[in-house]
User: Fold these one by one.
Assistant:
Number 1:
Amino acid sequence: MLAEQGRIVPPGSVADVLSDPVAAREARALPIAPRIAVRAQQLASPVSRMDRPLAAAALEHAAPRVGADAGMRRVAGLKGV
């Protein structure tokens, strides 16, 4: 969806990136554990419902967020790259 909207430019086809996101983007895949789901529910606006699990996972794992979403930039303690 983000690639279709022109918000990101994947290195190669979207199918290739999704088939192995860790290798393709040199990133870690983080699981959505129950504690992350709970933390996601505690986040409020301006973070969209779709971004709350991402923000919660990044906070739980002390990982930076990747992206330019304005709402995510305002989450206390969430660092970006």
Note: The helical segments are 14-19, 21-25, 34-42, 52-60, 70-73.
Number 2:
Amino acid sequence: MNHANNDDHLLVFVVKSRRGKADYRVDLSDWNGHGACDCPHFLCKLQPKIRNGDRGRHLMCYHIKEARDLLADNVIAKIIESETEEPQF
């Protein structure tokens, strides 16, 4: 099973490859929130297009999409948790 783990920063994740043989660092704050990954596919194929100003989900590698999904899951869980907590006076 693939998963992403939060690193020391809120928007930095380590995401396993699809086959689980490698870990890739994803920083979702790079490229003004588009995200960047150190996998070969992103570095060689996608990042040059982003440098030229193109943006969009089609220019996010698997690892960036996984990290964004994990971030969304974490945010949703925190919101639900905060809404179900008893008010403190």
Note: The mean pLDDT is 88.
